[in-house]
Amino acid sequence: MVTFLPLWYGKINRMKSIARSILCILIITSLIADTAGWGLSPIPASQNPQVKRDVILEYYWRTRGIIVAGSKDDQALLRRNNADCLLLSCGKYLVEPHVAGDNVRLLGGIIHEDVEAVMQILASGILSPEDRYKYRAITELVVRFFPPEDGIPYTELAINHLVARMFQWRALMEEKLMTAGDLPLPERSFM
Questions:
Q1: CA dihedral 42, 45, 51, 54 (to 10 degrees)
Q2: Distance between CA 158 and CA 169 in Å, rounded?
Q3: What tens digit of pLDDT does each residue of 1-18 get?
Q4: Sign, Cα dihedral of 130, 90, 170, 120
Q5: 87 - beta bridge partners?
Q6: Cα→Cα distances 151→98, 148, 154, Å
């Protein structure tokens, strides 16, 4: 005896299997998003200071462009500016070879240069006229708490450098990328 199944029978089976698949996906994703067991899990690797440092530096090496000063011209440029790290006009960072090998100093140099660039933008008032007032307030605070030792007033570059020096290490410590014991000796007395 031969029975003929209607044509729509195959479509119903396919629809049932699709519905089962969707239901399984919904159940699995809802179990993954359950936060009840998160307190028992280990600290994510992104919270490990060494891993976090490596990830941030990998981003800078790949996307922002860090140039290690290999030529005499590059090294002369760094010496003329009395710097281990410089932010170039193309947006890349030129660093001394010994700084490129030290993750903490490299991150500190990058932060230092970024803060100096932000201070120059605030001083120019390019983004908004209120930025000049903000910059003036920052300079007054710096002069009040760090008076010039030799009596000669600070230049704009010197103030930018002082502010960048303060944020350079503070930002690394607040992000737990370094401890106070990792600070270079001259910076410990400054902080």
A1: 180
A2: 17
A3: 455 545 555 566 666 777
A4: negative
A5: 93
A6: 35, 5, 9
